[in-house]
Write a structure and sequence with these properties.
Blueprint lengths: L1 E9 L2 H31 L7 H6 L1 H7 L9 H24 L16 E4 L6 E3 L9 E4 L3 E6 L7 E10 L2 E9 L12 E6 L3 E5 L4 E3 L3 H4 L1 H12 L11 H35 L2 E5 L3 H4 L6 E2 L7 E2 L3 H14 L1 H15 L2 E5 L24 E3 L6 E3 H19 L3
Parallel strand pairs: 8-11, 11-14
Antiparallel strand pairs: 1-5, 1-7, 2-6, 3-4, 4-5, 6-7, 8-9, 9-10, 12-13, 15-16
């Protein structure tokens, strides 16, 4: 199995400058390759330029510009061209399927923050000084960079990536390792119901509160973004010191919220994986749930629109995104796979409207957000607990129908 590791790097001032130059030069290569594809399609009878053609030009590009493109790893530049090729492949796939295409765009320096090295030892080397008590990673054109290895890397390192987040630099590794030791069986099963009022309700009657990290930081974010909005939009190299500090403050606040959300998701998922052998959850279509409301034109007055509840839906969308359901489910699935647990997604329709005692399904069974009262048998319970119990039953039925 493949596992990822992320470590904070501690480059010197010169190394940080070299890392920034590496990102800028790879960004320039990406944008140049994108421009070549656009020009070929527009001016050469709609000719398509492929990855192989652009990769074959790298040798000449490096010889023409040895001070910039020639100083970096050849394989990392190939990875940048593959990144562009994947963007075009995804674009054509969306066009074919009728989705919103999303044509690949030029990347600004601030939006190009990762350089990939497809193979350890080719342009980079993990733990390049094994006899040194301080862990280092070596990059071509940068040198040996110290890092904070807070946990051991198990397995053989496959790929290495450099990532910039604000003013911090990280190295991201993927390591191939044998199947990890599975956790001992507990004999317990659970269904979970994700929500906004409470982050998670389980079929046993337990609840995990919703920390609402985004809402807690909303006031500080609003003040920081208002301070940033007072500066005119200029190029990065034309910004004043105050402008740059305002940009970094907004990014720092967003980064803190993101780390808090990830920490909560990891801890909640780990608790479930340790306690239960089988976990059932709703197969939520989060993108559809957080879509904006479509406008309602007034048929009698052209150019006038009727109320459509957009303000209320916008607040709901913010709450959904702040809860981070998608991140949590991804982490839960990954941890369950490593621990040998089973996770199944079930259809969420009517899970909170179906009585677990008699099976009666009705909208009126849930008169409020929290209360469930069956109109047929009179069963009363918390609505989220009822939903989690129905999710568990549907998951067990699906497991029996499709055994692993």
């Amino acid at each position: 199995m493949i596992r990822a590791y992320k470590f904070l790097m501690r480059p010197t001032v010169g190394q940080a400058q070299a890392l920034g130059e590496m990102l800028r030069d790879h960004c320039s290569l990406y944008n140049g390759a994108l421009q070549e594809r656009r020009d070929a399609y527009r001016h050469m009878s709609r000719t398509s330029v492929k990855y192989g053609m652009q990769s074959a030009q790298l040798k000449d590009i490096r010889a023409f510009d040895p001070d910039r493109q020639g100083r970096w790893s050849f394989s990392s530049q190939q990875a940048t061209l593959r990144r562009l090729d994947k963007a075009f492949t995804a674009f054509f796939r969306r066009v074919k399927s009728g989705d919103t295409p999303g044509y690949p765009r030029f990347r600004g320096v601030n939006w190009f923050d990762t350089v990939d090295f497809p193979k350890d030892g080719d342009g980079c080397r993990w733990d390049s000084t094994p006899h040194d008590p301080v862990t280092r990673v070596r990059f071509q054109g940068v040198g040996h960079v110290r890092l904070n290895r807070h946990r051991p890397v198990v397995g053989r390192v496959k790929t290495v990536s450099v990532k910039r987040e604000g003013r911090k630099w990280f190295v991201v590794l993927t390591a191939e390792q044998e199947q990890s030791e599975r956790l001992p069986a507990t004999g317990s099963v659970v269904g979970i119901d994700l929500g906004i009022a409470t982050f998670l309700a389980d079929s046993g009657g337990g609840f995990v509160p919703n920390p609402r990290h985004g809402r807690a930081a909303a006031a500080k974010l609003e003040a920081a973004q208002q301070a940033l909005s007072r500066f005119p939009r200029v190029r990065r190299d034309k910004r004043t010191g105050n402008h740059q500090r305002a940009v970094e403050k907004v990014a720092k606040l967003h980064g803190k919220v993101r780390r808090q959300r990830l920490d909560h998701a990891h801890k909640t998922a780990l608790g479930l994986v340790r306690e239960y052998d089988f976990i059932a959850h709703e197969d939520l279509k989060i993108r559809n749930m957080s879509r904006s409301v479509a406008p309602r034109p007034d048929p009698e007055t052209p150019g006038v629109f009727l109320p459509n509840g957009a303000a209320a839906k916008a607040g709901l969308n913010r709450s959904i995104m702040d809860a981070g359901w998608g991140v949590f489910l991804t982490i839960l699935t990954s941890k369950a796979e490593s621990a040998g647990r089973e996770v199944i997604a079930v259809d969420p329709r009517n899970t909170s409207r179906t009585c677990p005692e008699c099976g009666h399904v009705a909208k009126e069974n849930r008169p409020t957000q929290e209360k469930f009262h069956c109109g047929s048998c009179g069963h009363t319970a918390h609505a989220d607990t009822v939903g989690a119990l129905n999710v568990l039953r549907a998951g067990l039925v699906r497991r029996e129908a499709h055994p692993a």
